[in-house]
Amino acid sequence: MLKLSYTIKRQTVRINVCETPWDLDRFIDFVEANPALGWDTETTGLDWWNADRGFRVRHVQFGNAHESWVLPVEYNPEFVAAAIWAIRKARILIAHNGTFDQHVSEACLGIPLEEIAPKLLDTKIFAHLVDPRAVKEGGPGLKLEELTKHYIDLTLAEEVKGSMREIAKRYKVKKEDIWPIVRTFDPEFLLYSGMDPVIAFRLFHVLYPMVPARSRRKGLIGWEHRLAHVTAKIERTGYLVDEAYAEMRIAELLAEETKWLAIAEQWVENVNSNQQLVVAFQKLGFKLTKRTKKGNLAMDAEVLDAIDHPLAEAVKKATKAAKWRKTWFENALNGRDSQGRVHPSVNSIQARTARMSITGSVPAQTFPSGDGYVRSMFLAEEGHVSVSIDFGNMELRFLAAESRDPVMVDAFLNGKDLHQITADAAKVPRKVGKMGNFLIVFGGGWKALMEQAGVTATVAKKTIEAFGSTYTWVDKLAKKLSQQARRYGGIYTVTGRWLPVDRDRAYAALNYYIQSGSRDITARALLNLDAAGLTPYMRLPIHDEIVFSFPKGKAKELTEKAARIMEFTVKGVLIPAEGEIGDRSWGSVLDLEDSKH
Question: What is the pLDDT of residues 79-134, one digit of tens each?
């Protein structure tokens, strides 16, 4: 047995690495003596769905505050059996971003998500409930290295959590390429592996007491863990990809890119070289003034939009075609499993307000809105149809309910046109009134309205002012939340979630309140749909929309059932859910909606 050690603020941590089956006796004693264990896995990458294509788990680690055990499961099948036994034996498993480790354990060790989830405590969830701000927002962040630095020990974060970068340099590869090739018993790799469960264990004991009492009373800890389990099951199911459609779009975009690159080559060799572009435009007589943070002349979209020249147009269109091709279509094709499915990463608790996000092979929030250009690449099952169910005016209805504004509540209860009411008050077209309404709930102001609606500053200001004078109780709620933010440094939502608000941006409190409350309505819908047994049909949750794959013959019945489960009444104001049934592709749902309008 190999033995390593590391000191955290004068406290020695012992790391035991099994080399032979004879070492397992002491490991078994350790597990039996520790019903709650920190837990982690080291793997060859992040593509847990490709176990039949080479993805494998390398180490499985368990630990408490002062001791850990590393099982190099790729080295000996008896270590695999021991890891499976330990996962099942433990009463509590503490992990950071534990959804990934659950997927790994199911794919490589045969332990279902459903078996691990009830005993898992995820430190990412606790960290978010304590302080959800990213590092760039002045918070601790949500990554393990960031949290280690903030809550445990700066030196530990730099020396151990940051060590894989140094290990990669030693192997002369990029960090993302080191995981499958670093030697099983590389001492630095073993130290990195062995410390992870210790860090998770310590982090939990730091964070748990810090979770606000109101969040605990409201049951947010259990709520968020159950939600993470539902989204993990959605990830596991995955989404079928239409290979022929994706390849067709790739060919189109490649041809488009090639055409514009040929035009750009009259002036530059590489459209992605800022230096070449700067030199070329200066030679053409354009004066460039905008600079980057490092002091170099900038060549971003704003600069290119201001230049009236064929080179600027060629650069924009070539880079756009390349970005769309790589980010959406090639990303999906390259991320498929052996069954032709992609498995999105659904980040169930993300952003300051806890709004969910989707990354990986299905970055759905980046897809062009309102059309099926990208969405048509994703298919319902054979014999199924795609169904989209979304909430109607979720944010505005939630705002009406929480503010109890009589004009707004009356509009929703009696079917009046809220956007027209705002437009009439401001004496602007309905379209401008509608955009003004949504900008208010999304935190925008008159400048954003001026840019997006293409109106003058006077009209934009008049529209925002009309909103305030028409829905006076909204202004009362906004002032109340702003006062709380200035006084306490944040606000609590209706579900008991603590949202830090920068005191110099206290005006953002209303937006945070609405966005977080709306997110929790979607979260509630996911939990209730799961309880009703509809999770196998769910494909993606995207803000106020949930996408399904329903059997064609039962689509109408199941859509109605799911919509009724999703709809929710807040203080007497209904937040309705309405479904749209398409053909097999997700994009067909949007095409159908367009045809109705």
Answer: 999 999 999 999 999 999 999 999 999 999 999 999 999 999 999 999 999 999 99
Q: Domain boundary at 301, 325, 342, which?
A: 342
Q: What is the CATH number of the domain that holds 336?
A: 1.20.1060.10
| Unique residue bearing structure tokens 């319902």 | 380
For residues 195 and 282, membership in a common domain is answered with no
Residue appearing with tokens 């949504």: 438
Q: Place 448 in a pLDDT band, splitting at 50, 70 and 90.
A: confident
Q: Is residue 494 part of a domain?
A: no
Q: Which residues of 463-476 are buried (b: 16+ CB within 10 A; e: fewer)?
A: bbebbeebbebbbe
Position 594 pLDDT exceeds 60 = no
The string of pLDDT tens digits covering residues 44-75 is 999 999 998 899 999 999 999 999 999 999 99
Cβ contact 283:239 at 8 Å: no
Could you tell me if residue 571 is inside a domain?
no
DSSP string, 537-550: GEEEEETTEEEEEE
- Long-range pairs, 53-61, Cβ under 8 A, ≥24: 53/337, 53/338, 55/107, 55/108, 56/108, 57/104, 57/105, 57/108, 57/109, 58/179, 58/184, 59/184, 59/190, 59/193, 60/86, 60/87, 60/109, 61/193, 61/194, 61/196, 61/197
CATH of the domain at 169: 3.30.420.10
pLDDT in tens, 469-519: 999 999 999 999 999 999 999 999 999 999 999 999 999 999 999 999 999
146 in a domain, yes or no? yes
Give me the domain span that covers residue 280: 241-342
Query: Both 146 and 63 in a single domain?
Result: yes
Angle at 207 between CA 206 and CA 211, to 5 degrees: 140
